[in-house]
Amino acid sequence: MSDTNFSGSVRTRFAPSPTGFMHVGNLRTALYEYLIAKSKGGDFVLRIEDTDQERLVPGAVEIILRTLQTAGLIHDEGPDVGGPYGPYVQSERMDLYKPYAESLVKAGKAYYCFCSRERLDALRADGVIGYDRHCRDLDAETVAELLAAGTPYVIRQKMPLSGHTTFSDRVYGDITVPNEELEDQILIKTDGFPTYNFANIIDDHLMRITHVVRGSEYLSSAPKYNLLYEAFGWEIPEYVHLPLIQGRGEDGTVSKLSKRHGATGFEDLVREGYLPEAIINYIALLGWSPGETREIFSLSELTEVFSVDGISKSPAIFDYDKLAWFNGEYIKAMSDEEFLVHALPYFHDLLPESASAYSIMTEILKPRINRFSEIPEKLAFLRELPDYDPSIYEHKKSKTTKESSLAVLPELIRGISALTLWDKETLSAFFGDFTAEKELKNSQVLWPVRIAISGTLVTPGGALEILLILGKEESLRRLESGRQRLQQSV
After folding, report:
1. Contact status, residue 33 vs residue 14, Cβ threshold 8 Å
2. Residues sharing a CB contact under 8 Å with residue 83, sequence separation 6 or more, in sequence order
3. 240-293: per-residue pLDDT in tens?
């Protein structure tokens, strides 16, 4: 069925359980639900599914709300903003579910099951798979007596015992399941709480959800959903099952994405230096293709081009190197002012406040980092000159040796000490005149200078930039330290 059939009336919902951090798989589901709704001018609903009280984690709802806000996935209805179909927290809707289950009992489509835990355990011990439908055909008089006696019970759905159930998924197509494989699922548990599947159906119907989006691991549950919709005589929503997200292990094998592959929570990734917009951009392409080679999309651009038809059946592999590339592209596209906002905490740890130094640090880092958290490592030499081996003054390409470096450093120190201005133009002119006078190549002068002031082979930026960042006094101190180190080694 084409998306256009739902234009103007699409309603999707993100319905997480508050059991911990927001995994990237959950976030991708929320993103696709958001895009499906917004690409058609519809509504994106947040519903908190907390019927499994034993697994609730304090503060998890706040994590969900904070993640959606940070990611830019703003919901139209939800527990924090309200809406016409609330409440939007399942534990606040408890009076809704049991009457619906009892209506199915009255219609002969569900039944009370009084089997004890001990009996069910014994069935499993005897190798019985699923429930044996022991209470399915109890006569009305027996049921009434057991209810009157206060016997604990669950309410189970009467599944058809023959034939097949077919459901249609927008990604996987039509899937048919023999009804004999379907267990009489529990709708209401002994504590009066609805099961996840049952509450899900009731809430989706009452909230007028048109598209149900979830992971492909729930494909096997779809026939049960359909049979419930049919039992109530309700319209069945569009199903959109998403491919699995996998991670690649150190040995090259792939498996379902987990913490052993690296950070899998949205907030963890943000703490590691990934930008929310880069994370969203990358996750959008995990299992979906825009039909073009372009890869960089803002959320608003994704909304314009998104189509369910672009979702793949094949599992997607979460590639941290690819995410880092996306992040780097977003960093490169920033204005210097935006870059500095993100980089400032790291700059403060490396160097006292200096507008000119921070400007140069921004200039040399912006095209060279993929994450802001890389800054401390790349510029660690600013905080403290490392204890380096003088052999790194030797560089074949630059045609420098320890001896040649030692020959130029004293004269450079004297010349730099005499400078009255400390800016790029002055330093460039000084080194230009120095190399011309000594008939040396730039690299023969700038390599030993950069080694002396940084103590490392690779720096983001050359000798001039580092000199300007460090300032005249600190630069001269390091140059003299380099001269002494060389003197002792030759």
Report:
1. yes
2. 45, 76, 77
3. 999 999 988 877 788 888 777 777 889 999 999 999 999 999 999 999 999 999
- How many angstroms separate the CA atoms of 460 and 466, rounded? 9
The full DSSP string for 247-265 is EE-TTS-EEE--GGGS--B
In contact, 451 and 381? CB cutoff 8 Å: no
Residue 257, pLDDT score = 84
Which of the 8 DSSP states describes residue 135? Answer: T
Q: Which residue's structure tokens are 């355990």?
A: 121
Contacts of 346 (CB under 8 A, 6+ apart): 372, 373, 375, 376, 379
8 A C-beta contact, residue 394 and residue 400:
yes
The amino acid at residue 138 is L
Compute the CA torsion angle 143, 148, 150, 155 (nearest 10 deg): 30
Q: Containing H/E element for 101?
A: helix 94-106
Task: Just list the catalytic residues.
Answer: 259
pLDDT tier for residue 19 given thresholds of 50, 70 and 90 = confident
Count of H-run helices and E-run strands, the chain? 20, 12
Cβ contact 453:479 at 8 Å: yes
Task: List phi, psi (to 5°) of 186.
Answer: -80, 135
Amino acid residing at 330 = Y
Cβ atoms of residues 94 and 193 within 8 Å: yes
Residue 398: C-alpha distances to residues 405, 442, 469 (Å): 11, 9, 23
Cβ atoms of residues 114 and 152 within 8 Å: yes
User: In a 3-state reduction of DSSP, which class is residue 307?
Assistant: coil
Q: Helix crossing, 24-38 with 60-71: angle to 10°? A: 50
Cis status, amide bond into 194, omega within 30 of 0: no
| Residue 82 DSSP label | B
Neighbouring CB atoms inside 10 A of 437's CB total 10
Tokens of 52: 């499994």
Instruction: Calculate mean pLDDT across residues 107-122.
Output: 96
Residue 143 CB-half CA count within 13 A: 15
**Measured distance CA(126)–CA(17) in Å, rounded:** 34
Rounded CA-CA distance 135/392 in Å is: 82
The CB-based long-range contact list for 134-142 (8 Å cut-off, 24+ gap) reads 135/111, 136/111, 136/184, 138/111, 138/112, 138/114
Indicate left, alpha or beta for 41 from its phi (over 0: left) and psi (-120 to 50: alpha).
left
**Cα Rg, the chain, nearest whole Å:** 33
For residue 212, count other CB atoms closer than 10 A to its CB.
22
361-374 burial: b if 16+ Cβ within 10 Å, else e: bbebbbeebbbbeb
> Is the Cβ–Cβ distance between 346 and 380 less than 8 Å?
no
Q: What is the pLDDT of residue 320?
A: 93
Q: Quick check: helix, strand or coil at residue 110?
A: strand
- Do the beta carbons of residue 419 and residue 430 sit within 8 Å? yes
Identity at 455, one-letter amino acid code: G
